[in-house]
TrEMBL record:
It comes from Candidatus Muproteobacteria bacterium RBG_16_65_31. It comes from the Bacteria. This is serine O-acetyltransferase. GO terms for cellular component: cytoplasm. GO terms for biological process: cysteine biosynthetic process from serine. The keyword Transmembrane helix does not apply. GO terms for molecular function: serine O-acetyltransferase activity.
Length: 263
């Protein structure tokens, strides 16, 4: 018992740089209190003392702001940081070494009495405010970004952001493995996000720019071919004045803000 408690407290120190002492973790961490009460209520539930289990879970909700159904299955070294507003449903299953931040919901999408809550693998981080809904599978080592809404299965090792949640792929460069090793060494993914996380909007813009570059090259090839055939067609594009883009945008805004256009 004491060995397991020591192991759990050590895992809290690894994931929360604000933790300063064992006494602080045991007395001032609502996520720790919520998990301790759930262990007892889950045991009562397995003994078919369901009303008593629900009342203990309700007491835990009042005291910690964390709502965990007594039937939920939770693995070892599970840590809820901050805790307020976390909801874990009846048929939810959570593996070992998982971390949830405040406002996370592991919810259902049906009223039928069946498996209706998500299953989380091992070593998963779920950022603040994220919602994981339905009987879906979240693979080992996945990261769910803050405020994401996940409604479909997520493969192992994936990073999910957005509403609805979508998997983002890290940029493939020579330093990606080095960065991953350093992140693992630090052992802290703040709210399910990392500085190296790719921006899906920026990635989409990059793809558009690549496409525009290819179109520009094709137009030049086509223009040269038509010129050799003595067909005069002007396919040349005007040069883009990058330096004056900001001034042009401000002039356009000013002209459309109520003043009369210049003659």
């Amino acid at each position: 018992m004491f060995k397991g408690l020591r192991e759990y407290i050590d895992s809290v120190f690894q994931r929360d740089p604000a933790a300063r002492s064992t006494l602080e973790v045991l007395t001032a961490y609502p996520g720790v209190h919520a998990l301790a009460l759930h262990r007892v209520s889950h045991r009562l539930w397995s003994w078919r003392l369901k009303w008593l289990a629900r009342m203990l879970a309700q007491l835990g909700r009042w005291l910690t702001g964390v709502e965990i159904h007594p039937a939920a299955k939770i693995g070892r070294r599970f840590f809820i940081d901050h805790g307020m507003g976390v909801v874990i449903g009846e048929t939810a299953e959570i593996g070992d070494d998982c971390t949830l931040y405040h406002g996370v919901t592991l919810g259902g999408t049906t009223w039928k009495k069946e498996k209706r809550h998500p299953t989380l693998g091992d070593n998963i981080v779920v950022g603040a405010g994220a919602k994981i809904l339905g009987p879906i599978q979240i693979g080992d080592n996945a990261r769910i970004g803050s405020n994401s809404v996940v409604v479909k299965d997520i493969p192992p090792g994936a990073t999910v952001v957005g509403i609805p949640g979508r998997v983002v792929t890290p940029r493939d460069d020579s330093r990606s493995k080095q960065r991953a090793a350093m992140a693992e060494k630090l052992g802290f993914d703040a709210y399910g996000l990392t500085p190296q996380m790719p921006d899906p909007v920026a990635h989409a813009i990059d793809l558009m720019l690549d496409h525009m570059h290819l179109v520009d090259q094709k137009l030049k090839i086509l223009s040269n071919a038509l010129g050799k055939a003595n067909i005069k067609v002007n396919l040349d594009l005007p040069e883009l004045d990058v330096n004056n883009l900001e001034n042009s945008a401000s002039d356009t805004t000013a002209g459309g803000s109520g003043g009369s256009p210049k003659e």
